[in-house]
Amino acid sequence: MNSIKVKLPFTNIEIEQLAEGHPVTDAADYLQNTIIGNTRQGSLNALELGSGNGIISFMLALQRPNWQMTGIELQKELSDLADLNNARLRLKCSFISGDLREYKTLLKFQGYELIFSNPPWVKAGAGNISPDKTRALSRQEITCTMSDILACVDWCLSPEGSAWIIYPQQRKAELARELAKMELEVGRLFEAEENPLCFIAKIRRKQESNHW
After folding, report:
1. Alpha helices of the chain — where are they, by DSSP H?
2. Distance CA 80, CA 91 (A)
C-alpha cells in the first residue's frame, strides 16, 4: 500500500492516505465543521457513507468522543487504511468494507441518529473520468448515485435523526426531486461565502411543514 501522511485540519494529528488517492478537500472540513456546530454533544450512533480513509469520521470523533462512529467504504484498500488509522488513533470508530447499495444486509435499519456523506459530486457520464480508479470512484457517480445515497439514508436514519450531505450548487434542484420520491425532506440548507461552490443539506424524516 503506497501511502502518505496528511494532517487533520484543526490538529497536529497525522493519518495515512493513499498517495494516488483523492486529496483532503475543503469540503470535508466544511462538512465536519457544520455538523459539529449544529449537532448535540450527547452519545449517538453515527454513520458515514463513503468513508474513504476515515478522515471525516476521525475529525468528528476527536471532537465528540461519545459518538460511536461507523463508516462504510466500497474500496477495500481505503477501508483497510481507515482501520489502520483508527488503530493508531484509538477512537470509537469502526469501518465496513462493502457496497452501501447493500444497506439492508450491511447496515442497521433506522439505527443511526446521525448520517453524513461527502459523496461523488459529478454525475455519471459527465466530465472526464480520472485514469486512477480511486480518484475516479471518489469524484464521479460510477458506482454510487445520489438516489443510492438517499435510499441508504431512508433505510438507516432513525426517526428523529438527521443526515448531512454536501453537494455542488448545480445539484440542488436534483436533490429536491429525489427527496420528493421519499419520506425525507431538507430541514435546513447551509451555504457559506467561503465555500460558494457547494451546499450542505440537513435531511430529516418528512414533517407536516417544510421550511427550506
Report:
1. 26-37, 55-63, 76-89, 103-106, 133-139, 146-156, 172-179
2. 15
Mean pLDDT of 35-44: 93
Asked whether residue 209 carries a pLDDT value surpassing 60, the answer given is no
Which grid cell sits at 181? 420520491
DSSP-derived secondary structure letter, 171: G
Q: Please tell me the distance from the alpha carbon of residue 204 to that of residue 167, in angstroms, as a whole number.
A: 17
Cα-to-chain-centroid distance, residue 67: 15
Is residue 56 a contact partner of residue 36, using CB atoms and an 8 Å limit? no
- Determine the CATH number of domain 3-205: 3.40.50.150
User: What is the reported pTM?
Assistant: 0.90
* Residue 1 clears pLDDT 80, i.e. is over it: no
pLDDT of 47 reads: 98
Cα distances from 212 to residues 38, 173, 185, 190, 192, in angstroms, run 16, 12, 9, 10, 16
Residue 156, pLDDT score:
98
